[in-house]
Amino acid sequence: MSQLPALLIVDDDALIVETLGALLDAEFDIYAAPTRRQAIDLVRALPAAPPLALVDLGLPPVPHRADEGFALIGDLLAHAPHMQIIVLSGQSDEGNARHARTLGALEFVAKPADPAYLRKILHDALDAGSAPEAPAATEGLIGQSPAIQMVRDRIGQFADAPFPILIEGESGAGKERVARQLHAASARRQRPFLTLNCAAIAPTLIEAALFGHARGAFTGAAGQRAGYFEEAGDGSLLLDEIGELPLELQPKLLRVLENGEFQRVGETQTRFSRARVLAATNRDLRAEVHAGRFRADLYHRLSVFTLTVPPLRDTGDDRLRLLDHFRAHFAAQTGQPAFALDPAAGEQWLCYDFPGNVRELKNIVIRLQTKHPGAVVTASQLADELDRDHRDSRAGSPPPATESRFDTIIADAMRRLREPAGFSLDDALKEQERGYVEAALRMADGNVSKAARLLGINRTTLYNRMDSLGLPRPQGSAVQ
Ligand SMILES: Nc1ncnc2c1ncn2[C@@H]1O[C@H](COP(=O)(O)OP(=O)(O)OP(=O)(O)O)[C@@H](O)[C@H]1O
């Protein structure tokens, strides 16, 4: 087996993949995929997710736009939260590349890439990703804000509760870390802590992963195997991205939560689990219940105790504490003196929303430490690392938590109406419509009937709208 670190390249341009392969294959074990779907299938099929990915943003079926690349970043991090993602972007989509960082990408490299620079970025990313944090850092929660104090209090209250805990929060806010804290604070702390990411396994394999399987239960099941519920013993089992659990498996999870009973796939013998279940989600599970994608009874069982991890924008000065923490950590790890922020940059740090939460903050610190070791970073140098569009749209001040969705729409409309380029209501509405149609098609994996159901219109209407928006029909489709 290769000792080289694995690198996933996602690009639909075969020539670029070939060129990158030739450039990098002495240093990396390369896996390539041309689309988001194939990339995810590949990651699922590998025994371990590659620690590094180099991704293009413009991917089929919309290669001229960045949406697939944005979605891919979310998908990859859902599968492998510790993967370091570098975006390889054309000069023209630098704004998109910045936004990609908000979504969790570590860095972007403009095409055509200088080979030496690309190598350096990849090796730096690998080092940053593999650097073990001090035990206190992996176990503790950094932050003194009332919102984080509240999370700590809840952890203390819930640590030994006899019910599952549902951990909600935005992507990158620290849900997994909170789950580890819950385990560490419980009487089960000496027992195993296992995590199963429901988004990271093919839906058909989740049941066997959770409950185990008998010998010959399905093709490829050569021997019998215990699942996560057995392996966790009387420790804790974190079911991450619980919203991804297939609907047909949900009754089996409900059963094990209610009375501890489960069966391995292919067995009739009933087994018992004593594991404590923690479940995490960045989806609104209530909305999923409403949409018929998540069972109400399972939701009620899981949500007896719910712990909400606040987004970073609601934790005040904690962004300074996190800056200090990660800066000291990465300076020590690189053996270089730490960077500092000048007063204007410090001000900017305090005003920025960090829409990608702690993960985004951590990645910004890694980039600043790599680019400016020992230096004083100015506001304009820091601005290069932030998601400019996002910052401008909020003018540096986070919206109050009570701001309604309608207020957000009005604020956004006002901003667009002020744009010097002029405004067209028809174009703006068309853009919205296109967004919804594309979202539904993607959620329905291109199945037009399903997408139409999601949109609350019939199939023929959807085809007509797709035609008028200039969206291609999925192959093999016809209006009947
Ligand atoms: N309060 C905190 N103190 C220190 N580090 C934190 C804190 N919150 C999050 N982190 C760090 O931020 C990164 C992202 O956190 P984590 O993976 O727990 O987020 P998540 O909410 O589970 O994200 P996702 O929904 O994408 O899986 C991790 O490196 C984690 O260690």
Largest sheet: 5 strands, parallel
Radius of gyration over C-alpha positions, nearest whole angstrom = 23 Å
How many DSSP H or I helices?
A: 22
Shape: globular
The CATH class of the largest domain turns out to be Alpha Beta
For the terminal residues, how far apart are their CA atoms? 52 Å
Question: Mean pLDDT across all residues, rounded?
Answer: 86
How many domains, as an integer? 4
What's the name of the CATH homologous superfamily of the largest domain?
A: P-loop containing nucleotide triphosphate hydrolases
Please state how the strands of the largest beta sheet are arranged side by side: 2-1-3-4-5
How large a portion of the residues is in β-strands, by DSSP E? 5-15%
Question: Could you explain the architecture of this structure?
Answer:
This protein is an alpha/beta fold and 480 residues long. The protein folds into four domains: 6-130, Response regulator (Rossmann fold), CATH 3.40.50.2300; 139-310, 3-Layer(aba) Sandwich (Rossmann fold); 317-394, Helicase, Ruva Protein, domain 3 (Orthogonal Bundle); 424-469, Orthogonal Bundle (Arc Repressor Mutant, subunit A), CATH 1.10.10. The protein has helices at residues 14-24, 36-45, 67-79, 94-102, 115-130, 135-139, 146-158, 175-184, 203-211, 228-231, 250-259, 285-290, 296-302, 318-334, 343-351, 357-371, 379-383, 388-394, 405-417, 425-443, 448-455, 459-469; strands at residues 6-10, 29-33, 52-56, 84-89, 107-110, 165-168, 193-197, 236-240, 261-262, 271-272, 276-281, 305-308, 340-341, 376-377. A five-stranded parallel beta sheet has the order 2-1-3-4-5, sandwiched between helices. It has a five-stranded parallel beta sheet with strand order 7-8-11-6-12. Strand 3, helix 3 (67-79) and strand 4 (84-89) form a beta-alpha-beta unit. The protein is globular and about 65 Å long. Adenosine-5'-triphosphate binds next to helix 8 and helix 16.
